[in-house]
Automatic annotation (TrEMBL):
This is DNA polymerase V. Residues 831-845, 996-1006 have a biased composition (Acidic residues). It comes from Zizania palustris (Northern wild rice). Keywords: Nucleus. Its main location: nucleus. It is found in: Nucleus. Residues 1-65, 142-169, 812-859, 956-1006 are annotated as: Disordered. GO terms for biological process: regulation of DNA-templated transcription. Residues 51-65, 960-986 have a biased composition (Basic and acidic residues).
Amino acid sequence: MAGKKRRPTALAEPETASLSSSQEEAAAKPALAAEAPAKKKLSMERRKHRKELDKERHRHSAESKDVLAAVAAAAKTKPQQQQPAEVVPEAATAVNAPPVPVVSGPGLHMNVFRDLASPEPSHREAAAQALVAELRQVQTAYEKGARKGESETEDGDGSSQMEAEKDDGLENCAPSVRYAIRRLIRGISSSREFARQGFALGLALVLESIHGISIEAILKLIPNLLEYSVSMKGPEAKDNLLGRLFGYGSIVRSGRVSGQWAREEGSSIVKDFVNEVVKLGSKKRYLTEPSVAVILDLARKLPQEAILSEVLEAPSVQDWFNTAADAGDPDALYLALKLQERTNAQKEIFGKLLPYPFSPEFFFAEKHLLSIAACFKESTFCLPRIHSLWLVITNMLVREAASQSDVNASSSKKHKKNKKGGSAEDTKKNLHSFCEVIIEGTLLLSSHDRKHLAFNILLNLFPRLSSSSIQLVLSSKGVHGLMDVLSNESSWLHNAGQHFLKELVSLVSEDNDRRVAVIMNLQKYSSGRFDCMSKTKTVKDLVAKFRSGQDCLSLVQSLMLLFVDEGCATDEPSDQSQTTDENSEVGSIEDKDLFGQGCTDFLKSWVVNTIPSVLKNLKLTSKGSSLTDSEMAKCIEEKFQVQTEVLKFLAVQGLFSASLGYEVTSFELHEKFKWPKPAISTSIRNECIEQLQFLIEDAQKDEALHVVSEVKSNDLGFYFMHFINTLCNIPSVSLFRTLSTNDDNAFKKLLNVESTLFYEERKVGPGLDSTKMHAMRYLLIQLLLQVLLHPDEYWEAAIDVTICCKKSFPAISQSDDSSGQASNEAGVEWSNEELSEEPNEDGLEEPNKDGSEDSNEDGPLEFMDVLVQTFLSVLPHVSGPVCFSIEQVFRLFCDYITETGLLDMLRVVKIDLKGSHRPSGSDDDEDDACVDIEDDETIMDDVEVGDSDAAADELDEEMDHNSGDEVDKGQDDLKEKVDHEAKDGDSAEATKSGDDSDDSDGMDDDAMFRIDPYIARIFKECNLPGSDTKQSQLMRFKLRVLTLLEIYLQRNTGKCLVLEVYSFLMQAFVKSHSADGSDQFKQRISGILQKRIFRAKDYPKGDGVELSTLKSLLEKALTLASRSRYSTVASVAQNATFWLLKIINSKSCSKQELASMVDKFHYILIDYFNNKKSRLKLGFLKEVVRRNPWVGQKLFGFVLPKIGCTKAEYRRVQTLELVDCILKSWVDDVSSATKVLKKHLSQLCELIQEILTNIPENKSRRQEVRRFCTRVLQTVTKLNLKERFQKILKPETYSLCEAQLGAAFAPFQK
């Protein structure tokens, strides 16, 4: 067609068919005659644009012949019917006139066919309506002419016989109608744009409107025009088959089949049509489902008896149904279910597809589902689209569930109405059977495609299911299959699993009941490890969505039921292989073992850890500051209700067990307590106790939010102790383990003292004493749980704390009947002679034995000392909540701490198990020496320092090169200038003897006895399986002690003991660098020194601060600032210097005392001038001079003669800046400055001569020298010392100044 010549565009436009007969006859001949000349006159310009018009030309060329024939036939028929013959000459004269826009006669406009393929639905509908209107007019005119006998004349015209010559059964239709029918049938096979949809719509409307068209003829014409054979392949075969399908659909939509059956008794049109459709569907798999849709569309237009007699009794349908179950045809099952729904037929006409008699219970019976399982498996052919069969199945399942939901929620009248739908048990049974047989047993055990289909089916079900039904659907195999998919990222199903999980979370995010059901099933069938196995945070995110008190309470109660559910994991498969096919990746052995024996402990552990975490999501201040007191009280009450439920669960499951059966009823509490039948393991009970500790800690932290009037009712600690006492009094309930004598004694004392403290606290009323009692009560509660958690470990500490309570609050000792049982207390004996001498559990004697006799000769230990020692004995190992309670008690009692207790804490910070492991002559040794906390008189001379080189040989070459040689040499140089250097005698002795541990530096016997039990305990437990290393345990111990020290410093920054704390912390800080200590430990000490000491508002003052101590500390700080190779240590040392000078300034020191302080600066400056290895930053000294001008006055005369002797040019210039800074500091004290400058004027002149003679070559340094000289001249002029300066100035110096300083020296020229 593309190669043929194109007809004129005037003939291609069908509007000319509507002209009057005379005009059309006259116009046709000139148009045909002008065809050839028109083609010859095509210009070159039109040829160039031919490519742009190719698409339009090909379309018109394919239709040109048929269009011309139809137009000619219409043109010759219409003039005879509408206009007389005498009008023809007049019409002939109008050939050259413009086309008439509106015509009166009927005709077929070809543009309607073009618009039928429009992408816009509205355009297609308008075109179809226009086509129907025109064809109606044409057919009406044709029928009128036929009745007048004029049809023979029309048929005699050869040009109009194009359609009529063919035996198509459309003899009663006008030629234009025949053409339109053929054109529409061809159009539904076209894949161009939306032609198939538009032409099918047009065919349906034409058949519906023009009853002269025979349906039988159309049924024959469609396969004739749209031929198909087995040999046909490719798009042509597909287009023809789809064209047939759309053609049959148009016939059904027209309503002609159902109408003809209703009019003609005994008509077989329905059977014939159904047979044709079934025959078409059997040709290709993708045609079957839409063919079923066509049949169902027809069934909607037929009465029930017609469906039973015509559709279901059709031979092709019966044959199809009989073989569908064995062949696995989902389309046949879909058709059977829809027809059964439409007719409610109770006949054996569906083969094996449907049970007889039919009912949902029989259909979803396990036996029947197994017989049609192949149909469900084969429905995956249309993925990713879900087969229509599943919508029917979903509706059947959900309709029953919805019916039962209405029954439960409606009135009694509606209840009776909905009873017919079946009972709730039957509905759940059907749902369970379907999921077990089809989802789990058929799809999830098959290929990836079918697993994907199973996930999609579940997603369709979930939105319409209740929470109880979700628990049935989200079964064990489904959860395992999902975890199997999500755990393997390389599988193509991984994305499908992620999508399923995302949609599932989205569906249940707004419904608390469904969310709980999903959480329970995911964790129940994954043994509490769904997030871990699926590598997601699904369960965690779902739990976090519970925010209100009632929602959290509902979740907590569900988790409790899950914990005690005896059959929660008994139905689980032994491994994941049950949900894995040959195409799935098999999980690891560890994953398989997860679902085996003992997996219930994982689930119980998750429940125990999740229940307390629900409280963290409970938002009490969601409205922000807009909450009133009453609203806040209500919110607190809601949270307290959840807390008590959690507390009771953890206490019952963790602390107690029932001696008879698994359920116990408390008549006092009006509650029933239940335990799981399998005995709870020790590890789970320990987790319960630990979570109890965290729960009580959180309650103690939240007490700041409590309304004053609600404090009593919301005291969770009191509620817990009362609950414990109540359960202990129930005969059939006992503690989960038998307590030893010591533990039992401690347990009873803790209960007794806490109860007494509670009533005393309420008696005293709000105040400091009440706060102290409250904090002590919570510490007793934590110790009680600690005693139960660790047998025979904490009873001594617990008893000691109870005794401290009695000494701190004498009122409670009067009501304590057991206070006289001193023989069982084995802790601290409060006598005036000595402390108790009971050995501790490690076989080591307590600190109060032997060695403590010397330290306690003047009297017994103070109450706070004993409390501190008790705290130190438990801090290395107790849990975080116990530490928090200790901190709260210490915060309230730390004002009473003595130097003994404080030193015990400080020595813990200094302990180092690993030792220094470094050469004694290294910078690290030097740093340690600078901050030694003991006031030993042992002085290391130069020989001792040199001898330490032998220890350096034990290290590698790099350390030897970086530390040993350089530092030893630098330190020897420093010793030559400095007369003494403080060094720890014990450390030096340890170095000589080869012992590399200096943990016991400065400790007397008493201190050693107090510290050794803690360290011995760490050594004892460091070898236990799963325990931390001894160093990590010690580091945790140190950090906890640092917390107590920080609390002390917050409240006591002005006490003299702060200097002691500073000394110990500074030494520990330096050691942590030299021994490669923990970064956390370094940062913690640095933060305490900077924030709590150096930047504190107050500092030690008064006569209690000894000047000798300040002098020693200042010397060590300056040495660290000038020699430490760690920038952090140097920075802290500089701040320490500023802080110490501030303390010195607060004292009324004499000039001699201040001069002795300045001598310490002399040592570091000498080292700076003479030793290249000095790390002193003169910017630090500038800041010292700026803050303390008196230091600059004392240093001025010392520095001037040293500058000229300085070997390094850079350091010489830097020292000039220091002198310049000193000169600037004299601005406010002219008299003193004048005296000092007069005294050192000659040295100043000599310095100017020296630096100008050896002026640096570097430009910037040269400018700095000139700037310094200019500053000196300005200061001399300001202090009126110009004449004296000129007299002292030597001629050589004068010449140098004149040459180098220029205009700045002009005022001094003679």
